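Data availability (excerpt). All sequences and predicted token strings are deposited with the supplementary files. A representative entry, GTPase obg, is shown inline so that the format can be inspected without opening the archive.
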Amino acid sequence: MVQVPDGRSFVMADLPGLIEGASQGKGLGHQFLRHIERCRVILHVVDMGANDGRDPLEDYRIINEELANYEYRLMERPQIVLANKMDLEHAEENLKRFKEVYPDVEVFETTTIIAEGLEPVLYRAADLLETTPQFPLYNDEEVDAQAEGVLYKFEPEAPAFEVRNLGNGQWELVGEELERSFKMSKLNNEEDFMRFARKMRKMGIDEALRNAGCQDGDIVCICDIEFEFID
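Structure token line:
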């Protein structure tokens, strides 16, 4: 259990370094990779010191390649990189190369001895967990089908939410992903409600309500809880 200084907490699964071929079961690859299926955010600890002759860029490429080979949907999950051992001789040079090759990857830095820079990455991980829904790789039907050798056709995923117009300025939001996110959110005070409102905005709910004709002051219902729509 990781405790964030602002009072939030989350569970972190520590996966040992994966070797090339782990997705095919090399070493203990499958045992380690099974743990990551339940993780919503992936944090890579990359050795930028590379004092044993390893290349940080190659390490990162191999691990992501093994994740994709094991299950390509793992690559849809948010990733953060913690650049470790930044107090070693070649770390700055390696980090510069890393950012040039992976400019879109979010990177935080820490040192070997005094572990500076860990607090910001904890805050970032907690923020991502608040906005990243759970998305299991498999469901029971898929597992049963694989066991029995039954082939199912691909069906597109259901939308995250649906807007329903109940009339007289009343609206309802339904959807498995939205309702799961709502039930997982702690709504004990105004700050909690504001955080959930930001999450809804990122999901595109505000825009969907406007497009459907929802106006300022209308009532929006989620899981039998009513909110006033403020545009």
